[in-house]
Amino acid sequence: MLSKRANIVPASPIRRLVPYADDAKKRGIHVYHLNIGQPDIETPKQFYEYIEKYKNEVVAYTHSQGILELREKFSEYYKSWNIDVQPDEIMVTNGGSEAIMFALGVICDPGDEVIVIEPFYANYAGFAAYLNVKLVPVTTTPEEGYRMPSYGEFKKVVSPKTKAILFSNPSNPTGVVYTKEELEVVAKFAKEYNLTIISDEVYREFTFDGSKALSMFEFEDIRNQLIIVDSLSKRYSACGARIGTFVTKNKEFYSAALKFAQARLCPAETTQYGALGLLEADEEYMKKVIEEYKIRRDVAFEEISKIQDVVVKKPQGAFYLAAKLPVVDSEEFIKWMLSNFEINGKTTMVAPLSGFYATPGLGKSEIRIAYVLNAEKLRDAILIIAKAVEEYNKSK
Amino acid sequence: MLSKRANIVPASPIRRLVPYADDAKKRGIHVYHLNIGQPDIETPKQFYEYIEKYKNEVVAYTHSQGILELREKFSEYYKSWNIDVQPDEIMVTNGGSEAIMFALGVICDPGDEVIVIEPFYANYAGFAAYLNVKLVPVTTTPEEGYRMPSYGEFKKVVSPKTKAILFSNPSNPTGVVYTKEELEVVAKFAKEYNLTIISDEVYREFTFDGSKALSMFEFEDIRNQLIIVDSLSKRYSACGARIGTFVTKNKEFYSAALKFAQARLCPAETTQYGALGLLEADEEYMKKVIEEYKIRRDVAFEEISKIQDVVVKKPQGAFYLAAKLPVVDSEEFIKWMLSNFEINGKTTMVAPLSGFYATPGLGKSEIRIAYVLNAEKLRDAILIIAKAVEEYNKSK
């Protein structure tokens, strides 16, 4: 009686190993969670202050596109990033997740195709399956540092059914920050084939070593075929607020998404006010957060590099690092690590990267590390991975 | 470049007339909003108390199925209504809206059909279009008080593509509370044709004159093909919390919905804690609310009945009343009322009922009144409708 789409939707590769971690915890093992992009950084106090400040006697529906005051604040924020959009070009969504779903729904009918750069954010596959959209991957590799594919690579996969390109920059899961030249490949390709660009820019602030995440908005001639997906989850360590945005200058896209938005009424009123507070957080907050992540990135990269035969390049953004380990099947390895391995009562959980690929069989030796713990814990957690790799390969 | 589904999704009939109301307000007219189910009743204080109480340093993701403590509270609540479900048979959703979308996604592929009893909650059409599901209506009429269609009527519309029946009890928009005999028609029909029942029971508490809203859970032999959709929005006047539930004893349905849920990560953490507070609200709160709505129902029915040639039966539940007015096109009439009519600087907005039908042309003279204002305002608001009908028909 189940639908086909229910069967096709993959279980989240980030969450499906949770039962193994739960079992480890039951055995009294401490598990370092590097598997999910849930930061340990404190959420700005303004979140609760604004909820308190805007407390209403009746917790009511808001406009479906979100509270005007919040969209005005977002508009200011985007302008500070050189993304010139008005409040009526911004829609508040239930996290970036819903913004992606709206974008796919606006552009694609069942059977239509969307090009993704693999490895990609795993939940894209879930949204696509839910809406019967086919993800068509262009592959990148750990050996080449997961850099942007060439124009020719994109051209190979385009078909009459191709409607859009969906990708994230900085990239989840690889931490790559694309250069202007790399992004230009996407812009030109989209222009040439009249494709919509769904640009997931939620990690905009998270860049290191002077690299800068350019928005696809930079490319003027594709602005009318651009949807930017954004979220406050990572920026302000407020994943549980579920506040994202769907941003577009294309009025048709906006009106269509608004109809979807009206059907589900509105995002949570309460956390929209909280979000208003988040956007008031001072720049100091963000600066400190980025400094902290840079330290972590350095530690994570240093430690993971020590593993013999690992393939890893230094990531420049987001808070992820993807690496190829000298193991045949990283998912089996992670299960084993959670079930059979510990150092001083501790073990580590990371995400297997195969779930971030659409091509079957790819990414099997790769993992994603979310460096969301402080430097000391992180060092310990990755040391555990290194030792585990040794033991695991001995045990095989 | 827009998808077909984006074109098919109807604009919300409840929200699409908002610009006319906004214009009226700009002209200094006070608009009584009887068009949307947004109650004026105070949300229980526990909502904010619990948000404060469970305030975390990091506003983090929760489990995708919702916080365990909240699902435990829901389980207790359902048991008190004779709906025997465990926490792992309850999923917390972004309002009842998301629960309906999960249900449709779990059961239906593009092109599949779902039977609805029209007039039905208008947003069902939006969700169905988004997921390429076809709603197949069985019609009820104002003259017959919108009662449950016969088994024979259901049988007429069933096809090999029919996967489910979706309906609400008490009914939005008609306020009908179905009897056990009427619900048995649905249960038998679903059993006979092996259809899933998606039972929208969000107005469970809102019944008057001793009538009782039975859950479809009462029918033991269809429990494994039942999904109950629920929401705290109306019960606790907390529409902006966006907390609903997807409830099923069918493990396949639950696992499939959980995969959809994992892709979108979780409902807002903050309002889940608020919801925990709501479920602590004492029974006195609910009693008072129902008493208040009974008074309003009586006033609304009394006043609307005074209109000459109106067709209306006394509704027994929810907080809606559907009526057939002596106007050819109620949507035009409502626009006219907002644009050209006022008494002492006031006018009234209601919802045109045509958007609650799937059959083109039906419901054109009908309206839905949400009696979400206090008795005095409600009387004034409906008096305005009565006078407006007179004037409107003179002006034609």
TrEMBL record, chains A, B:
Required co-factors: pyridoxal 5'-phosphate
GO biological process: amino acid metabolic process
GO molecular function terms noted in the UniProt entry: pyridoxal phosphate binding; transaminase activity
Keywords: Aminotransferase, Pyridoxal phosphate, Transferase
Domain of life: Bacteria
Enzyme Commission code(s) on record: 2.6.1.-
UniProt enzyme class: transferase
InterPro entries assigned: Aminotransferase_I/II_large, AspAT/PAT-like, NHTrfase_class1_PyrdxlP-BS, PyrdxlP-dep_Trfase, PyrdxlP-dep_Trfase_major, PyrdxlP-dep_Trfase_small
Gene3D superfamilies in the record: Aspartate Aminotransferase, domain 1, Type I PLP-dependent aspartate aminotransferase-like (Major domain)
Occurrences of domain Aminotransferase class I/classII large (ranges): 31-382
Pfam family, one: Aminotran_1_2
CDD domains in alphabetical order: AAT_like (cd00609)
PANTHER family registered for this protein in UniProt: ASPARTATE AMINOTRANSFERASE (PTHR46383)
Membership in a protein family: Belongs to the class-I pyridoxal-phosphate-dependent aminotransferase family.
Record's protein name: Aminotransferase
Organism: Thermosipho melanesiensis (strain DSM 12029 / CIP 104789 / BI429)
Organism lineage: Bacteria, Thermotogati, Thermotogota, Thermotogae, Thermotogales
